[in-house]
Write a structure and sequence with these properties.
3 strands; single chain
Length: 97
């Protein structure tokens, strides 16, 4: 079995509470690492455009990161298909979203 298939199989075995906890930890690690690599520890997210995705079954949930970025004033965009083209839309500003 290839490594990707192994990871997908392990992910399927996670219970909902364990998946939520691990997703939250991953988001918190990202934010901690990001602040360590910026010039100032309190990165200003206000008005910054950030692309995220909404997790499907078995995917890492970015809910913790989404909540943080919303509170920090970032402009969040999500991918969607329009015909065969991939575009990014902002909820609340695009009536088709």
């Amino acid at each position: 079995m290839n490594p990707r298939a192994q990871v997908l199989e392990l992910r399927k075995r996670l219970g909902p509470s364990e998946a939520t906890q691990l997703s939250r930890m991953a988001c918190e690690r990202f934010l901690a690492a990001w602040s360590m690599h910026t010039e100032k520890s309190s990165w200003d997210w206000k008005g910054r455009r950030v692309a995220l995705y909404r997790a499907r079954s078995g995917e890492l949930s970015l809910a913790t990161l989404e909540e943080f970025l919303n509170e920090a004033g970032a402009e969040l965009y999500y991918p969607r298909l329009k015909g065969q083209d991939l575009e990014f839309a902002r909820p609340g500003q695009d009536p088709a979203f």
